[in-house]
Fold ABC-type Mn2+ transport system, ATPase component, mntA.
Amino acid sequence: MLGVENLTVRYGTQVALEDATVRFEAGTFSAVIGPNGAGKSTLLKTLVGLLPDPAGRVRFDPGHTAQNCVSYVPQQQTLDWAFPVTVWDVAMMGRTGRLGWLRWPSRGDRERVTAALRETGVYELRHRHIGALSGGQRQRVLLARMLARDGHLLLLDEPLTGVDAATQEQLMALLRAQADKGRAVVMVTHDLEQARRWCDRIILVNRRIVADGTPDEVYTPRNIEATFSASYLGHTHAEA
Ligand SMILES: Nc1ncnc2c1ncn2[C@@H]1O[C@H](COP(=O)(O)OP(=O)(O)OP(=O)(O)O)[C@@H](O)[C@H]1O
């Protein structure tokens, strides 16, 4: 459905991602896993068109574009939760593409948003200001916006962060169901165990793609060490 070929992304002189080739298929739930600074968010942002791709390494199947098929859920902490809008407004952005009334929502839009808010369990909170939500509720609202958009490819950057165990289970089941309905779901996560339980496919990243396959294929001591060891040592020194 969508892939990158030999993708290298630099911020100035720093290489965030090097020679990455990966393809995401319909009906599959993939986890992108790696240490802090490994280039995971960079991969998602390139797929969704938020970073320039001068070499044209992002490839969609015919008829698909980032605009018509991708739903992207950024990291929660990158958003401005003080913005004066309600839960309903944010979910409606999934339909209209923006806040405000530049495009008046149709009845179909309102029905889709209602269904998405019910599916994620925040319909009762629809009139509430987004600043007055807990971390888990915020994540549900972002998922509602994603569902309302009806994309074929769902990209989520650390959806489990700041979410309690019971809510994590619900979110994972919801994403699994989306993949089972034929969507391609891609989640960045630090949680190796949740990824093993719910995902078909694991992609280990540490500036390069270290491994790509089923959890059993990918979770070998050698791959885990190649992905995490150097960075963990680096963090330990930095924090000491
Ligand atoms: N806008 C930017 N300008 C400069 N450097 C950046 C920018 N965004 C990311 N980087 C750097 O690129 C590298 C990869 O960052 P990225 O956010 O993709 O990592 P990540 O794997 O998502 O990390 P984390 O798990 O901490 O969210 C890091 O070294 C980061 O400091």
